[in-house]
Automatic annotation (TrEMBL):
Keyword annotations from UniProtKB, A to Z: Amino-acid biosynthesis, Aromatic amino acid biosynthesis, ATP-binding, Cytoplasm, Kinase, Nucleotide-binding, Transferase
Function comment: Catalyzes the transfer of the enolpyruvyl moiety of phosphoenolpyruvate (PEP) to the 5-hydroxyl of shikimate-3-phosphate (S3P) to produce enolpyruvyl shikimate-3-phosphate and inorganic phosphate.
Top class in the EC scheme: transferase
Principal localisation: cytoplasm
NCBIfam families xref list: aroA, cmk, PRK11860.1
Pathway: Metabolic intermediate biosynthesis; chorismate biosynthesis; chorismate from D-erythrose 4-phosphate and phosphoenolpyruvate: step 6/7
Protein name, per record: Multifunctional fusion protein
Family, per entry: Belongs to the EPSP synthase family.
Residues engaged in binding 3-phosphoshikimate: K25, S26, R30, S178, S179, Q180, S208, D340, K367
Residues annotated as binding ATP: G470, P471, T472, A473, S474, G475, K476, G477, T478
EC number(s) reported in the record: 2.5.1.19, 2.7.4.25
A Gene Ontology molecular function term of the record: kinase activity
Length: 686
C-alpha cells in the first residue's frame, strides 16, 4: 500500500493483463457477523483484509468470538467461532468501527437485540452518516439506544433491551437513505424469531436494492430463509436459527472490479493506436474472482460499461474486458442499483463523446464523503464541465485534448474517489495526475495502486526518474531512499549492483582487473540478485546486505565498475528498475549515462574531510574501529578512480543541480530534493 502524502501517476498509455481482486467488503462483513452469531466454527476463504473488515474482526473479538489465525493472511482461511446467538451476561465494550457502514449498522442491530452495554464509535465522518432510521426501527422492539452526540447519528450507546412491549406487529424501517438499515434488521432479527414470525416492512422507497439480495443470499447460506414480498415486506419465519455452513468462500469485490472493467474499456486499445505494428494483437484486462454468477449487485456495472462501449466476456468467476467503441459513448443512466460502482462511470464520462448523466444517486451525499460534490469538484479540476443536483450529476468531458488539466485530486478519505480518479491518468493530453492521501484505498482495497500498475504500461519517457549521483560517502544512498519513500517510488541503488558483482567475482576467486573483464561481465549479466524491503539485498538465497557494505566491498565495487564490459552488462538491469509510478536512482552515472533524460538530476557532494568524518562516525557507531586519516586517504583514492575512469566517469551531468551537503542535515537535503521535484510538477504543492 502507498502510505505517502500523495501519489503522482505519470501519464499512462495502455493496459492489459490479468488481475486477481480482493474479496468483497459487503460479503466479508456479512459473513463475519453471521458466523459470529452462529454456533460452532465457520471457515472463511478469501476474506477481504482491509480497514472495514479489520474493524469488524476487532469488534467480534471484543465480543468474545474466537478468530484464528489472529489476523487475515493472504491465501489462508480464517476460522470464526461464534457466540451462538447469545452474549455472556453483562458484556460491555466500546467498539471502534472506523468508517465501515457494513460494521456500524449491522452490529448496532445485533448488539441492541443481544443486550449488554456498548458504545459504538468511529471516525469523525461516521458521525455524519445517518443511522436514525435503523435506531427508530430497533426502538419499536424495545431496544435501548441513545445518541451520544447528534440525534440520528453515531456515536451510540446501547443498553439492555426490554422486549416486554414487543408485539408481533411488523417492524417498520425506512429504506430511502441506506439499504444497510434493512440489511441490519434482516441479519439480526432471526435472534427474535425463535418462536414467532418476525416481519419487517419497508416504508417508502428502498434504495440500493441489490445489497438486500446479497443479505438474503448469505442468510440462506447460514440457514435462514427469509420470505421476500416484493421488496416491501420480509418475513423471518418462526424457528429460524443461524446455522454455520461450515466453510464459505468470499467472491472478489464487484465494486473493486469496476475500476478494472473501466480500465479495459478505456485503455486496452490505446497502445495499438500509437503503434500500428501491434495492431493485430488484441489486448484485454482479465479479472479473476468475480464473474457472471456473482451475488453482488455491482456486477451489473458491466451493463453500464457495455452501454459506454466496453466489450465484456464473462464466465462464472471471471471477466474479460476490452475496448469497443472509442471514444466511449455518453450515457444517461439511473444508477440507484449500483451506487458504488457508478462513481467509476463518472470518470469514464471524461472519455465519452457527449454529456453523461448519472441519476438517482442521492445516497452519494451521505457516504464516505458527499460524493456528488466531491466528484463534481475533482472532475472540474481535470477540465470537465459538471452540473450537480440533489440526486444527479451531469458531466461534459473536456472539449479537446488541450482542455485537459493536470490536477491534484483531493480524495476526502474516500477510497472510491482515489480509485476511480486514477483512471484519468489515461488522458489524451498525457498529463500526470496526483492522487492525494492514496492510503485511503485501505478501506476496501489496500493494494489497489500496485494492482493497477501491474497491468498498466507507460512510455519510458513518461515514467519519472530522479537521479542522485555523487561521490562515495556523500549520503546519496540515504537521501535517495528517503526521497523514494516520500514519493512512493522504486529505488535503484546502482552502487549495490557493482558491490554485488565485486563480491560475486572475488568469491569466485577472480582478480578484479582487465584480465578477467569478460568473465566478470558475464557473471554480472546473470546475477541472481533480489532487492527486498528495508534495503535488503539477496544473492540467490543469501542475504548479502551486510557483506556488500564493508569498506573492502566498496573498494571492489570501484574496481569492477572501472571495467567497461561490466558497466555495459549492468545497463539493462538498471534500466529495468524504471517502473511505475517512478524511480529514484542513486549512483555515479545515473544522470550522465543510464537515465540521460531524467527530469531531475541531483549531484550530491560534500568535502572529502566531511565525508571521511561521516564515514568514521558511521563505523564507530557500528562498533567497527576506524582511523580518520586512513579513511580520508581511501576516499580520495576512490574519488580519483571514479572520476578518472574512461567509461562513465563520476561527474555532474550538465543539467544537474548541485548540492553541497557538507553543512546540511539529512532532513534538509531530502527537503531540498523534494522541493526541486515539486517545482517541476504541473500541480504545485499538495
Ligand atoms: O450493504 C452493503 O454492503 C452496502 C450498501 C450500499 O450502501 P447504501 O445502502 O447506503 O446505498 C453500498 O453503498 C455500501 O458500500 C455497501
Ligand atoms: C459506501 C461505502 O461504504 P460503507 O460500507 O461504509 O457504507 C462504500 O464502500 O462505497
Amino acid at each position: 500500500m502507498f502510505t505517502t502524502e500523495f501519489l503522482d501517476l505519470p501519464a499512462l498509455d495502455s493496459a492489459h493483463g490479468c488481475v486477481s481482486l480482493p474479496g468483497s467488503k459487503s460479503i466479508s462483513n456479512r459473513v463475519l457477523l453471521l458466523a459470529a452469531l452462529s454456533q460452532g466454527t465457520t471457515t472463511i476463504h478469501d476474506l477481504l483484509d482491509s480497514d472495514d473488515t479489520q474493524v469488524m474482526l476487532a469488534a467480534l473479538k471484543q465480543l468474545g468470538c474466537k478468530i484464528k489465525p489472529d489476523s487475515v493472511t493472504p491465501g489462508q482461511a480464517i476460522a470464526v467461532t461464534g457466540i451462538g446467538g447469545q452474549l455472556p451476561g453483562g458484556t460491555s465494550a466500546t467498539l471502534f468501527l472506523g468508517n465501515a457502514g457494513t460494521a456500524m449498522r449491522p452490529l448496532t442491530a445485533a448488539l441492541a437485540l443481544l443486550g449488554g452495554n456498548f458504545e459504538m464509535t468511529g471516525v469523525p465522518r461516521m458521525y455524519e452518516r445517518p443511522i436514525g432510521d435503523l435506531v427508530d426501527a430497533l426502538r419499536q422492539l424495545g431496544c435501548r439506544i441513545d445518541y451520544l452526540r447528534d440525534q440520528g447519528f453515531p456515536p451510540l450507546k446501547i443498553g439492555a433491551p426490554d422486549f416486554s412491549q414487543f408485539s408481533s406487529l411488523p417492524i417498520q424501517v425506512r429504506g430511502d437513505v441506506s439499504s444497510q438499515f434493512l440489511t441490519s434488521l434482516l441479519m439480526a432479527l432471526p435472534l427474535l424469531a425463535k418462536d414467532r414470525d418476525v416481519t419487517i416492512e419497508v416504508v417508502g422507497e428502498l434504495i440500493s436494492k441489490p445489497y438486500i439480495h446479497i443479505t438474503l443470499e448469505l442468510l440462506t447460506r447460514f440457514g435462514i430463509e427469509v420470505r421476500n414480498d416484493n421488496w416491501q415486506r420480509f418475513v423471518i419465519p418462526a424457528g429460524s436459527r443461524y446455522r454455520s455452513p461450515g466453510a464459505i468462500h468470499v467472491e472478489a469485490d464487484a465494486s473493486s472490479a469496476s475500476y478494472f472493467i473501466a480500465l479495459g474499456a478505456i485503455a486496452t486499445g490505446a497502445a495499438d493506436e500509437a503503434d500500428a505494428d501491434n495492431a493485430a494483437e488484441p489486448k484485454s484486462i482479465r479479472i479473476l474472482g468475480v464473474g457472471r454468477d456473482s451475488i453482488q449487485g455491482d456486477i451489473r456495472f458491466i451493463e453500464a460499461a457495455q452501454a459506454m462501449g466496453a466489450q465484456v466476456e464473462n464466465g462464472p468467476n471471471w471477466l474479460q474486458v476490452s475496448r469497443g467503441s472509442w471514444p466511449l459513448k455518453a450515457i444517461d443512466l439511473d444508477c440507484n442499483h449500483i451506487p458504488d460502482a457508478a462513481m467509476t462511470l463518472g470518470v469514464m464520462a471524461l472519455y465519452a463523446d457527449g454529456v453523461t448523466t448519472l441519476r438517482n444517486i442521492a445516497s452519494w451525499r451521505v457516504k464516505e464523503t458527499d460524493r456528488i460534490a466531491a466528484m463534481a469538484t475533482e472532475l472540474r479540476k481535470l477540465g470537465a464541465t459538471v452540473e450537480e443536483g440533489a440526486d444527479f450529476i451531469r458531466i461534459t468531458p473536456p472539449a479537446a485534448r488541450a482542455d485537459w488539466k493536470a490536477a491534484s485530486i483531493h480524495t476526502y478519505d474516500d477510497h472510491r474517489v482515489a480509485m476511480c480518479f486514477s483512471l484519468a491518468a489515461f488522458n489524451p493530453a498525457k498529463l500526470p495526475l496526483r492522487i492525494e492521501d492514496p492510503k485511503c484505498v485501505a478501506k476496501t482495497f489496500p493494494d489497489y495502486f500496485e494492482t493497477l500498475f501491474s497491468v498498466c504500461q507507460s512510455a519510458c519517457q513518461q515514467i519519472p526518474v530522479i537521479c542522485i549521483d555523487g561521490p562515495t560517502a556523500s549520503g546519496k544512498g540515504t537521501i535517495a531512499a528517503a526521497v523514494a519513500e516520500a514519493l512512493g517510488y522504486h529505488l535503484l541503488d546502482s552502487g549495490a549492483l557493482y558491490r554485488i558483482t565485486g563480491l560475486a567475482a572475488s568469491r569466485a576467486g577472480l582478480e578484479l582487473d582487465e584480465a578477467n573483464e569478460e568473465t566478470i561481465a558475464e557473471m554480472a549479466l546473470d546475477l541472481p540478485v533480489r532487492f527486498g524491503a528495508d534495503q535488503r539485498v539477496w544473492l540467490g538465497d543469501e542475504d548479502i546486505s551486510l557483506a556488500i557494505r564493508t569498506e573492502q566491498a566498496g573498494m571492489n565495487a570501484s574496481r569492477v565498475s572501472a571495467l567497461p564490459a561490466v558497466r555495459a552488462a549492468l545497463v539493462d538491469l538498471q534500466l529495468s528498475f524504471q517502473q511505475l509510478p517512478g524511480l529514484v536512482a542513486d549512483g555515479r552515472d545515473m544522470g550522465t549515462v543510464i537515465f540521460p533524460h531524467a527530469p531531475l538530476k541531483v549531484y550530491l557532494w560534500a568535502s572529502a574531510q566531511c565525508r571521511a568524518e561521516r564515514r568514521y562516525k558511521q563505523l564507530i557507531s557500528k562498533g567497527i574501529s576506524a582511523n580518520i586519516s586512513t579513511l580520508l586517504a581511501d576516499l580520495e583514492a576512490r574519488d580519483a578512480r571514479d572520476m578518472q575512469r574512461a567509461t562513465a566517469p563520476l561527474k555532474p551531468a550538465e543539467d544537474s543541480l548541485q548540492l553541497d551537503s557538507s553543512e546540511m542535515t539529512i532532513e534538509e537535503v531530502v527537503v531540498q530534493v523534494l522541493t526541486w521535484w515539486q517545482e517541476r510538477q504541473p500541480f504545485g504543492r499538495a
